[in-house]
Amino acid sequence: MIDERVVLVDEGGRAIGTEAKATVHHAATPLHLAFSSYVVDAAGRVLLTQRAFGKPTWPGVWTNSCCGHPLPGEPLADAVRRRLADELGIVVDTVELVLPEFRYRAEMPTGVVENELCPVYRVFWTGNPTPNPSEVAAYRWADWDELREVPGLSPWCLLQLDQLTGQPTDWPLADPSLLPPAAQV
């Protein structure tokens, strides 16, 4: 297993170092670079996933399709593709930026904190994923309008719902120059 590292960033979104993914999340998690993605099918539904119960952060929580961290020097769109393949067996070519400046901080009941600059992406894909059970406990396709009704939806997903207006097929593409500097690789 490789020592997967996350990119630490300052308040301006500039890279200031790296830390092992295995140790970066705790009560005083430093600000770091991440991403969220929404897989949208031909009917305009969104793929929701339930995080595996063995995950150290937010186990068992329902959330958007896939989240993750780019490796140092890895373009965010490549990280989205990599994690979709690893977590869900989904291979896509086109990854579309929809929220370049999304940022959040959330604390689990255990005191573990997420503290991320987390640009949001949309991908179009139709089919049945093949989830990696160490990453995803369950999945379901949902109409966009019913997402707020999902009990216990992840805090970052709820915040993203406030910024993603209209139907997923109609979300406007964002300007990549608005990404944090650390993500402009």
TrEMBL record:
Keyword Transferase on entry: no
Residue positions binding Mn(2+): 25, 32, 69, 114, 116
Cofactor note: Binds 1 Mg(2+) ion per subunit. The magnesium ion binds only when substrate is bound.
GO biological process: dimethylallyl diphosphate biosynthetic process; isoprenoid biosynthetic process
Pathway: Isoprenoid biosynthesis; dimethylallyl diphosphate biosynthesis; dimethylallyl diphosphate from isopentenyl diphosphate: step 1/1
Database matches in InterPro entries: Idi_bact, IsopentenylPP_isomerase_typ1, NUDIX_hydrolase-like_dom_sf, NUDIX_hydrolase_dom
Residue ranges occupied by any Nudix hydrolase domain in the UniProt entry: 30-165
EC number: 5.3.3.2
Main location: cytoplasm
Gene Ontology MF terms: isopentenyl-diphosphate delta-isomerase activity; metal ion binding
CC terms in the record's Gene Ontology section: cytoplasm
Reaction it catalyzes: isopentenyl diphosphate = dimethylallyl diphosphate
Pfam families with a match to the protein in the record: NUDIX
SUPFAM superfamilies per record: Nudix (SSF55811)
Cofactor (UniProt): Mg(2+); Mn(2+)
Keyword Manganese belongs to the record: yes
Gene3D superfamilies tied to this protein: Nucleoside Triphosphate Pyrophosphohydrolase
Keywords: Cytoplasm, Isomerase, Isoprene biosynthesis, Magnesium, Manganese, Metal-binding
Active site residues according to the UniProt entry: 67, 116
Family recorded in the similarity comment: Belongs to the IPP isomerase type 1 family.
Protein name: Isopentenyl-diphosphate Delta-isomerase
Organism listed in the record: Kribbella sp. HUAS MG21
